[in-house]
Design goal:
Length: 262
């Protein structure tokens, strides 16, 4: 009977193979855990922190308005400048520091870049969030705020008051924007007045570069059947679509229907 001879190099090969498999398994498990933590951070932690910060800012504005003395009326400023591209969901930009002429008859100073200065309320969505100047991701949108496109009009003014907000992560204030229906109301509160807009047009999907949707007379340049043909006082809400992508934009428009001074 022959006794099998085990070569040392064969043993080493098997040991190295087992070690490589073990190391590869550990790497895959670690990578899986890291990816899971990243998903949890994006889908839960950023929402939690942004919503908490946005709620705190809403309360801060309410306290500020409750204690301030209304500013005296002054001469209205000029019209808004050129509207930016609708795909500038990041990058911010400053507005001109002119006076804002509201229908309430009160002139308020234009906000500084990234300054929270108004509150957006959408009853159907149970939404109440701050509006800040600009659409910078780190300074506005990622804080759970809704951002005002620089160059578009301010609340209550003739023209287009255009806003952007995240649909997913970082507070996702516009997560349920597709739930809005015609005749729903959108309220914008400032230190001067509360402006109520009534939703009357919805564009389910357009190009991220469709700058027509935030022009003074908003009308899609990609889908021209959507939009307005006459001057008016409009609000525009924009967000990414479909969910978890930024390939297209969804747009909701409303027309100013009432103004209530503070």
């Amino acid at each position: 009977m022959r006794v099998p001879v085990v070569q040392h190099h064969s043993r080493r090969r098997r040991a190295l193979g087992r070690r490589a498999l073990w190391t590869g398994g550990e790497f895959l498990v670690t990578a899986g855990v890291v990816l899971l933590l990243l998903v949890v951070h994006q889908l839960w932690w950023t929402n939690r922190e942004a919503r908490r910060g946005a709620e705190h800012q809403v309360h801060a504005l309410e306290r500020q308005w409750a204690t301030q003395t209304p500013a005296p009326a002054s001469t209205p400023g000029g019209a808004a400048g050129t509207a930016p591209s609708a795909n500038t969901a990041a990058g911010g930009g400053s507005s001109s520091h002119r006076s804002a002429n509201t229908n309430a008859g009160t002139i308020a100073a234009a906000p500084h870049r990234s300054q929270a200065y108004a509150i957006l309320t959408i009853p159907r969505l149970h939404l109440r969030v701050p509006i800040a100047e600009g659409v910078s991701k780190p300074n506005v949108l990622n804080k759970g705020y809704v951002g005002h496109y620089p160059g578009t009009q301010q609340p209550g003014q003739a023209g287009n008051f255009a806003l952007a907000g995240h649909r997913n992560t970082h507070g996702e204030p516009f997560r349920y924007l597709p739930s809005l229906r015609l005749k729903d109301t959108v309220r914008v509160e400032t230190s001067a007045a509360t402006f109520t807009y009534t939703v009357d047009k919805i564009l389910p999907q357009t190009s991220a570069a469709d700058s027509g949707v935030i022009r003074p007379i908003p009308r899609s340049i990609v889908r021209p059947s959507y939009g307005y043909s006459r001057p008016g006082s409009y609000v525009t809400l924009t967000t990414c679509t479909p969910e978890f992508t930024s390939r297209y934009r969804m747009v909701v428009w409303g027309t100013l229907t009432s103004t209530r001074p503070r």
